[in-house]
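Workshop exercise sheet. Pairs work together: one partner reads the sequence aloud, the other fills in the structure field after running the prediction. Swap roles for the next sheet.
Pair: D.N. / O.F.
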Amino acid sequence: MAAHGAALDRSGQSITTLFQQGNYAEVSLTHVQPELSGVEATASGRQTGNIVRDYRTISGAIKFDLDPQISFAVILDHPCGANVQYNRGTIFQSTTDDNVTTVRADAEALTGLIRYKLTDSFSLHTGIKGQQIDAAVALRGAAFGGLDGYDVKFSRDVGFGFLVGGTIEAPEIGFRLALTYGTKIEHRLPTTESFGFGTVKRNPDPTIVHTPQYANLDFQIGLAPGTLLFGSLRAVAWDGFDITPPALFAASKSALVSYSNDDLTYSLGIGRRFSSSWFGAVEGGYEIRNGGFVSILGPTDGF
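Structure field:
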């Protein structure tokens, strides 16, 4: 399984299920134990310790050949999310009690795809993605100044986007090159905010969030009978992404989360079929580092 760490990125939004031979189904349960630490941007330069927590996801996919030219697939995945909890004894612990800064964001997506083979070597695919998001953030500590004690909850919202792409194949050598573009998706999240001195009623104006557009380029080629080289290039337009709750903006004139850089992730692997029942693979990934400071609420920069 490849890692996809850019900003809030998780699954990589792969559609390789669509290219499986014949009718196909899969279910996967993933348990992730990430480790991420850093240094406070203060004179003390204090270590943060590990600030990300374990999480689990359940994903699945099913694919049918409707006829020799047309295939259909449905994919359930978790395209983005966050599970951050800072440690006590840092500038992210409340100045009045033991509570610390926490971030939780979850997204689930259901994608329907259809593929049409123009020839044995070229096909087109398109689809629609339904995505739901909810999140909660608690800001604690001197790092946030007067916003120490701020809480926000974003209730669940569903948005829709589209996918389109094409594939070049040479089945006799196991070659496939597939390009997929996914549109950004707008969410209008019902928002409840608190500044530590009482709850602000749900704002009639929701927090508007656009999850970014992206492009995935996936390839594979046979090196020898039973041996496959595969990889991908993923570009995600995080530049300009922000989460700006209305009351927070009115109080601070700033966003809760914002990114100013796009992300580019590479992966490369090799697989080997040992029998009709067993297949093994090794895969590695690299994400370009942008350098400088990172967002406190999405604190990653490359891997």
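Discussion prompt: The radius of gyration is 22 Å. What would you look at next?
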